[in-house]
Amino acid sequence: MKNMDEIDIFTDLDLVADPYPYLEFLRGKGVASRVPGYKVVAVTGYDEGLAVFRDEDTYSSIVAHGGALFPFNFTPADDLTDQIADIRPKVPGGDSILTADPPQHGRIKSLLMGVITPKRAKENEASIRGMADELIDKFIGRGSVELFSEFASPLAALTVADLLGVPPQDRDKIIDPNRTPIPPGQVGVERGASDAAKMMESARKVRAYFTGYINERREEPRHDVMSEIAQVRYSDGSLPPVGDVVSLANLLFVAGEDTTSRVTAGAMRWLAEDGDLQKRVRAHPELIPNLIEESVRLDGPGRAAFRLAKKPARIGEVDVEPGTVVMLLLGAMNRDPRRFENPFELQIDRKNVRDHLAFARGIHSCAGAPVARAEVRIALERLLERLADFRINEAKHGPAGSRRYNRVPSYFVQGLDDLYLTFDKA
Predict the structure, then answer these.
(1) Which residues pair with 420 in a beta bridge?
(2) Contact of 82 with 311, CB cutoff 8 Å
(3) Residue 200: what pLDDT?
(4) Which of 6, 28, 103, 211 is least enclosed, having the fewest CB within 10 Å?
């Protein structure tokens, strides 16, 4: 890695493979520090980041999609709330639940909670087991697998499709096995116009599918999940436009698929790298939930979350002016030694194992986290039950001590792009 002072946190590919030495370098500057060349304050402290997550009066989520790179031009003021409202219609994703501020956020979230009900989430768990076994059946005879594309990603897509009530015979209409997801905040590389076109076409197919289904179910309701979703209402009892429901379904499909699949692959990497850990979890499967929490704490799917200061604030020793982007560095906050003892170690018996911020906090805490946790838990249970002694494929990733992993080139998200394993059949 180059000199730490020369690194650009938004464009430097050196951070893709291993950002953590640089995050510790930033921590050495304080719990918050200014990012050279940008109107950005980076936060590494757990308590300070948690406070920002919970303070929607001071911070807006309008930058949640675009991070620090949207060129906002605000008129200087001590409160930018009205100016943010004026520009919101022009911001990509400005009407999304991810970027919404109160009171609109509460209105959209009430719709979301009508889609992800506890009853539906519980029913979804029963389906996940069967879908996981069907995927394992396809590769178990080989003794090897590329886990991300052959198991984690399709299982995540199937799980969301099932949660949203997509009938099995229709799933091939929206789940493209050859799709190439392109993460937001891509760093320093181009995957090509053809890949971008594929992604846009996939999103168009999903939107068109749900639009047709929801329109149909509103006209002729049936006894199925999609009819329930078509009739879900805002908290004030009003029926939302079809487009609002479709946007929410599309967000669940895209975000749920990408995030959860990377959590599954990440947890499996820990097990495949550490034979003693794998033996312990096999002997005590009740430890799987803790393994998941520690895995996302140490290397979760989110690299950073972003907020925009609406009002003057102070984080640590840094004064934050209105219009400043606050970059919450999740990997640093989740390794804050003030919060986590031996923060760089995976400890599945850690007492505060669920204190991490990988799923955010405050009003924007991940509503799909319970579904994601259940999916990953069931996926690991089935893999541990059916695959014996799985190991990292050294022909693909190199020997222990010199591993080579392809990771997502993004300053927003992180995780493995592939994970090759070899195993014995249980």
Answers:
(1) 146
(2) no
(3) 63
(4) 103
Residue type, 315: I
Per residue in 153-192, pLDDT (tens digit) is: 999 999 988 988 888 888 887 776 554 444 555 554 444 4
Cα 286 to Cα 308: distance, rounded to the nearest angstrom? 40
Question: Can you tell me whether residue 237 is helix, strand or coil?
Answer: coil
CA 158, CA 150: separation in Å to the nearest integer?
A: 12
Amino acid letter for position 341: E
**The pTM of the whole model exceeds 0.85:** yes
Return the HEC string of 271-340. HHHCHHHHHHHHHCHHHHHHHHHHHHHHHCCECEEEEEECCCEEECCEEECCCCEEEEEHHHHCCCCCCC
Q: How confident is the model at residue 120 (pLDDT cuts 50, 70, 90)?
A: confident
Q: Which long-range contacts (CB under 8 A, 24 or more apart) does 278-282 make?
A: 278/389, 278/390, 280/348, 281/348, 281/380, 281/384, 282/384
In the chain, the domains with their CATH numbers are 4-28+92-302+360-425 (1.10.630.10)
Q: Are 242 and 355 in contact (CB under 8 A)?
A: no
- Rounded-to-integer distance, Cα 373 and Cα 294, Å: 12
Q: Which of 65, 55, 61 is nearest to 313 (CA)?
A: 55
Under a CB-based contact definition with an 8 Å cutoff, are residues 88 and 395 in contact?
no
Helix, strand, or coil (residue 173) = helix
Amino acid at residue number 309: A
pLDDT band with cut points at 50, 70 and 90 for residue 272: very high
Say whether pLDDT at 1 is over 90.
no
Are 18 and 27 contacting, i.e. CB atoms less than 8 angstroms apart? no
Give the DSSP H/E element, type plus range, for residue 26: helix 20-27
Answer yes or no: is pLDDT of 373 > 50.
yes
358 — phi, psi (to 5°)?
Answer: -60, -30
Which among 291, 296, 267 is positioned nearest to 281, based on CA atoms?
291
SS3 track for 377-421 = HHHHHHHHHHEEEEEECHHHHCCCCCCCCCECCECCECCECCCEE
- Tell me the mean pLDDT in the region 18-42: 95
